């Protein structure tokens, strides 16, 4: 495929595709279905991303102690161009408006946001958090957007290591995690962690937790790396 010069996804396109919103059952994020694009918004005139990305939503109302983990997790929408990303992003609820217990994911197309996925099984995650409260809503949304833009815009030097990200809305403290593929590659994970801190413009230390440690030790698991 010929090289395509892609603009930075930070700049939102001036024109957007008409969208129609459909509210899902109570507790879920608002999904979107694009209408047929006008000729000027045809695929030939869009700016393709290096990878397709899929948003996933884990509905807290579908969770129960008896249910298998991940049974309430489902894909919402897959996008493959800069324009489709902004159309989708502008028509879903921001993390600060999701109810407590919700998890919203964005992962490379073909990768499920589960430890069991072969491309996640040997990996781990960097995490940061913001205290819950009205004063921190803007920060949470900003962290989420900047994380998404860094991922789909390939701003990480070790870009192939990135699997996706998840924002977890909780009563006391909201969290955002960046998942990667190879936990044993310390150089790659440290590079990603430092760059992610720069993207978020934070000075506090962040930790990297290996999925296998979390699976075996649960709350007793310790960070493998910190930056």
UniProtKB/TrEMBL annotation:
Presence of keyword Disulfide bond: yes
Protein name (record): eIF-4F 25 kDa subunit
Keyword Disulfide bond in annotation: yes
GO biological process annotation, one example: regulation of translation
PANTHER family the UniProt entry points to: EUKARYOTIC TRANSLATION INITIATION FACTOR 4E RELATED, EUKARYOTIC TRANSLATION INITIATION FACTOR 4E1-RELATED
UniProt keyword terms in alphabetical order: Disulfide bond, Initiation factor, Protein biosynthesis, RNA-binding, Translation regulation
Family per similarity comment: Belongs to the eukaryotic initiation factor 4E family.
Gene Ontology MF terms in the entry: RNA 7-methylguanosine cap binding; translation initiation factor activity
SUPFAM superfamilies from the UniProt entry: eIF4e-like
Any one cellular-component term (Gene Ontology): eukaryotic translation initiation factor 4F complex
Highest taxon of the lineage: Eukaryota
Pfam families referenced in this protein's UniProt entry, alphabetically: IF4E
Region Disordered, residue ranges: 1-45
